[in-house]
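Tip: read the tokens left to right.
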């Protein structure tokens, strides 16, 4: 029996890898059917299990196409990995604990690179991306430690009670936030393989969005529409993917959910639950679509 590892597609998600013996057991139990798309190293693309010689007992088989592919390609068959929404399932206490450590780390300044990186490294494995199994963040605390230290120091900028200092602090925070977005995008991996993703958004434009977000808070509700436009701009500037990243929430969606989140946090006890609810929802508003979908619409 072959010692190859296999992947299969089920309900819009990529499953695996599984040893061939386990895959055959799934076939026997009916979890993998002859029309289920499967892939193993050396195959040029996904194929139906029934088309793989000797894999499904009694199924007619066509010779599989092989190549030197190093990982499972994107499924292009109907109803598979051409696109789809992201999703997340953050454990309540894990998310709350990591978020609390992030806050404490920023206040204490020195631990900030470790608490921030720890949150990112913990969060990404709980995010499911169509066609990108076992998503991970590989960044290390010392990669851009100075960014988090300066951000921590800027939390005390308000003590200066100076309009000029506040405005300068806002611009510096925006530039540092841009650096963090670039860093995160460049440190993602799937199944242990680095993804060729990068964020190419202009720092000047990013700072403009950041300042617009701060100014729009004066309108009480207008910030929600600015945020959705900002998220869409960020998505348009993510490169290195065969699919386009989109942000689908409306300003109203962001507004009312954020209000509910803020009210829940105001009562303190519900914080872990509303934090998870809001985090899961926010991630689900990102999706992958074939490039050119909106241009051709």
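Filled-in amino acids:
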């Amino acid at each position: 029996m072959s010692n190859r590892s296999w992947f299969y597609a089920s309900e819009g998600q990529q499953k695996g890898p599984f040893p061939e013996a386990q895959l055959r057991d799934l076939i026997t139990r009916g979890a993998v059917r002859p029309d289920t798309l499967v892939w193993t190293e050396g195959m040029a693309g996904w194929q139906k299990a029934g088309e793989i010689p000797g894999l499904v007992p009694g199924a007619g088989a066509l010779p599989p196409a092989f190549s030197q592919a190093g990982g499972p390609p994107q499924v292009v068959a109907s109803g598979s990995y051409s696109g789809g929404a992201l999703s997340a399932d953050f454990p309540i206490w894990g998310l709350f604990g990591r978020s609390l450590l992030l806050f404490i780390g920023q206040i204490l300044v020195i631990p900030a690179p470790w608490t921030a990186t720890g949150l990112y490294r913990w969060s990404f494995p709980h995010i499911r991306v169509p066609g990108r199994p076992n998503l991970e963040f590989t960044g290390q605390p010392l990669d851009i430690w100075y960014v988090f230290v300066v951000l921590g120091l800027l939390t005390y900028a308000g003590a200066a009670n100076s309009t000029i200092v506040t405005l300068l602090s806002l611009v510096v925070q925006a530039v540092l936030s841009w650096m963090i977005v670039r860093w995160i995008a460049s440190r993602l991996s799937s199944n242990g393989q680095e993804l060729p993703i990068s964020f190419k958004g202009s720092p000047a434009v990013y700072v403009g969005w950041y300042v617009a977000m701060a100014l729009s808070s004066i309108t009480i509700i207008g910030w929600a529409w600015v945020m959705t436009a900002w998220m869409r701009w960020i998505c348009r500037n993510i490169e290195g993917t065969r699919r386009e990243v989109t942000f689908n929430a409306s300003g109203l969606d962001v507004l009312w959910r954020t209000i509910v989140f803020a009210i829940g946090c105001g009562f303190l006890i519900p914080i872990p639950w509303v934090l998870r609810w809001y985090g899961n929802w926010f991630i689900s508003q990102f999706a992958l679509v074939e490039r050119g979908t909106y241009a051709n619409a």
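Confidence is low (pLDDT under 50) at residues 65-69, 76-81. The longest strand covers residues 13-19.
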